[in-house]
Structure formats: C-alpha cells, structure tokens
Known about the structure:
By secondary structure, the chain is an alpha+beta fold. It has 3 helices and 4 strands. The protein has a 4-stranded mixed beta sheet with strand order 1-2-4-3. A hairpin with a 5-residue loop joins strand 1 and strand 2. It is elongated, with a radius of gyration of 14 Å.
Amino acid sequence: MEAKPGYEDVMRCVEGVAGSRLVKLGSAGKSFEGRAIPMLEITDPRVGDDDKQLVVITAGTHGSEEGGRMVAMALMEWLASGEPYLTLRNQKFIILPCVNPDG
C-alpha cells in the first residue's frame, strides 16, 4: 500500500499553485535518485523582502511523514490563494514540501 500523499501528489500540488502571482517556484536540488526537490517562495511581491519576516517550512524529511507533506500542501494552497492578505504582505514563506522524495 502506497503512502498518501506521496511525492507525485506533492508535485501535482506544487504545479497547481505555481501559477499564482504570489508563488515563485524553485529547486533545492535533486535527490540521490534524481528527483527534484521543490522549493516555493510565497509572498506578496509588491512589498520588499527587507520589510518582511522570513518563515521556512520543511516537510517530508522521512518517508513515513505523510502528515507533514499534507500540512505543507494545505499551507501552500492557502497562501497561494491570496486569502491571508496581511500575512503575505508581512512575511515571506519558503516551503520545501518534500525534502526527501526518495524516502
């Protein structure tokens, strides 16, 4: 039985939010097995970074951390929606939703 959400689920979520003007998609490199390690910056780009707090969130460090990946995915979707307007003006989120895609 495959754990859910798995790496493919995370990548679908990443692709889904990447179109938001609030999201900048990058990479933290590749895993041992060659999978991309996605890194998202989510913030209001109209406000300079010098005026923001930095929040770094990592998930999926171990293969059995489905809950961490799930929370990271929900947070990415919520932030990318623009609903937390004041939060996005005051904070810059760096989210790595699956730092160990081979796990």
